[in-house]
């Protein structure tokens, strides 16, 4: 509702997560919209969105989650008598996962704890990975400055992972400067070597992962295996391969449906017109993508085809040439495989260049666009004709829905999960794919503090493994423009 009034500023639903995250961070920090570094729109536009969102909450008499903490803080500051009543209620305060606390939460806790200051906190500063939500690891690191008499107890025994995994992870996270120094020890056996593997192409990387899982399955269940990705977007190509090879998988977090991307719908409209029904809706999707200056008025009735348009009296020569070329291209791809036809539409017809040139939202949206088309192309490799492609897409969607809807923890399926989502979980065998710059660390990490958080995120992913840890990356080249992650050189 709020975003609908900002169409002129080109703010749409694609930025909902960024907007909500930014609003949340402001409330958790106790800051102002003008204090935040905004990349998806102007600071002026974001301030308007922030204010309108606040006005709408008031109008509907609602609070969001962050408001509950913020209003509590404001109430305690304004009404000392109310604060005093609540201080009596809670004589002892215990806080778990303290490394994830944000400034506003900490201010409320400090007020509640007075005057006794009976605080018991538990946390691991090396697992502070929610900076995008406003968590501040520095709060835990400087806790003894606020409470000089605090007693520290170090829990340095690791009961999950093998000695090799613990040693490698400890050495790696030691590259962070802003942390408590600690020496972790595993109570388990030495275990297998960590495998770090380079591949020339994504196809080679995916084939290795597929064969690895088949090998591991001989000595364990599918549910003992996890693929941990930096983002859910990176999982999509592998879901296609798993689906085709009938390897069960499940998501811990519901991924976005990439097949709903407009680029996929446009390419399918091309294929539908060439191989299937010549619908008016499909026709209008393709006639000017890329721009051909073909007017809709050339199609006089709902059943008009491209061939009919060529018979329109007074049709300009440029329109006639462009329509003939489109007819030729659509007939030409009929002799192609689905994979070749999709690549022809993308490259030869020029759809991809057109789509990239007309996209808004920066490189991240371009990457998402390319990824959507790559996924469609990947699925099409196994398709026998247009109808076969539609059947594969239906099966892929069915598998994705099934994987996303799975709530059975005991279901025997490989887990697909993000590094953030994996926190607190454990698996016998963990695979970390596509550990390249831009993914790990994220291309959004441009400051020293952000790189330290990315290092903590990777540390969390590594330490989900109990017995075996496999890390794969792509060699920089035609199939990949990013080198291997700098983090891989920090493992030993």
The CATH homologous superfamily of the largest domain is named P-loop containing nucleotide triphosphate hydrolases
Taken in chain order, the helices and strands follow as: HHHHEHEHHEHEEHEHEHHHHHHHHEEHE
Strand order of the largest sheet: 5-10-9-6-8-7
Please, what is the average pLDDT? Answer: 88
Question: Helical stretch count?
Answer: 19
Which spans have pLDDT < 50 for at least 5 consecutive residues? 7-13
Overview of the molecule:
By secondary structure, the chain is of the alpha/beta class. The protein folds into four domains: 1-62; 67-153, P-loop containing nucleotide triphosphate hydrolases (Rossmann fold); 163-248 and 412-489, Rossmann fold, CATH 3.40.50; 262-397, PCRA, domain 4 (Orthogonal Bundle), CATH 1.10.486.10. Helices cover 45% and strands 9% of the residues. It contains 19 helices and ten strands. A six-stranded parallel sheet has the order 5-10-9-6-8-7. Strand 9 (427-432), helix 19 and strand 10 (465-474) form a beta-alpha-beta unit. Helix 10 packs parallel to helix 17 (363-380) and helix 15 packs antiparallel against helix 17. The longest helix is centred in the C-terminal third of the chain and has 21 residues, at 385-405. The chain starts with 15 loop residues before the first helix and ends in an 18-residue tail after the last strand. The relative contact order is 0.12.
């Amino acid at each position: 509702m709020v975003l609908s009034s900002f169409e002129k500023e080109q703010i749409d639903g694609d930025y909902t997560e960024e907007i909500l995250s930014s609003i949340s961070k402001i409330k958790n920090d106790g800051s102002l919209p003008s204090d935040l570094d905004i990349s998806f729109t102007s600071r002026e536009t974001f301030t308007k969105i922030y204010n309108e969102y606040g006005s709408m909450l008031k109008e509907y008499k609602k609070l969001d989650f962050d408001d509950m903490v913020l209003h509590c803080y404001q109430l305690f500051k304004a009404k000392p008598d109310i604060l005093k009543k609540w201080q009596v209620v809670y004589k002892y305060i215990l806080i778990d996962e303290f490394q994830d606390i944000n400034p506003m939460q900490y201010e409320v806790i400090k007020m509640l704890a007075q005057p006794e200051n009976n605080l018991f906190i538990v946390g691991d500063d090396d697992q502070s990975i929610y900076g995008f939500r406003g968590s501040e690891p520095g709060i835990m690191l400087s806790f003894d400055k606020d409470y000089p008499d605090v007693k520290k107890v170090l829990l340095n025994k690791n009961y999950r992972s093998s000695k090799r995994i613990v040693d490698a992870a400890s050495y790696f996270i030691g590259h962070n400067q802003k942390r408590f120094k600690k020496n972790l020890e595993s109570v388990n056996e030495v275990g297998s070597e960590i495998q770090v593997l380079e591949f020339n192409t994504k196809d080679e990387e995916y084939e290795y992962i597929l064969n690895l899982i088949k090998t591991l399955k001989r000595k364990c269940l599918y549910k003992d295996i996890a693929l941990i990705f930096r983002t859910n977007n990176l999982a999509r190509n592998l879901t296609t391969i798993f689906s085709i090879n009938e390897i069960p998988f499940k998501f811990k977090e519901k991924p976005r449906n990439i097949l709903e991307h407009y680029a996929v719908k446009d390419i399918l409209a091309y294929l539908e017109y060439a191989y299937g029904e010549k619908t008016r809706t499909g026709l209008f999707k393709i006639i000017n993508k890329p721009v051909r200056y073909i007017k809709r008025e050339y199609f006089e009735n709902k059943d008009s085809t491209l061939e009919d348009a060529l018979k329109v009296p007074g049709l300009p020569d440029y329109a006639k040439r462009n329509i003939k070329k489109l007819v030729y291209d659509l007939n030409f791809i009929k002799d192609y495989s689905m994979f070749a036809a999709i690549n022809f539409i993308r490259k030869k017809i020029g759809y991809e260049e057109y789509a990239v040139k007309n996209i808004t939202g920066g490189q991240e949206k371009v990457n998402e666009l390319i990824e959507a088309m790559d996924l469609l192309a990947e699925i099409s490799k196994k398709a026998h004709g247009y109808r076969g492609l539609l059947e594969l897409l239906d099966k892929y969607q069915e598998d994705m829905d099934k994987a996303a809807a799975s709530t059975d923890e005991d279901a025997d399926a490989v887990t697909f999960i993000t590094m953030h989502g994996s926190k607190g979980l454990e698996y016998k065998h963990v695979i970390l794919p596509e550990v390249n710059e831009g993914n790990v660390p994220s291309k959004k990490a441009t400051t020293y503090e952000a790189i330290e958080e990315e290092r903590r995120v990777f540390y969390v992913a590594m330490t989900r493994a109990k017995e075996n840890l496999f890390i794969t990356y792509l060699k920089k080249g035609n199939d990949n423009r990013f080198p291997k992650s700098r983090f891989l050189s920090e493992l030993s």
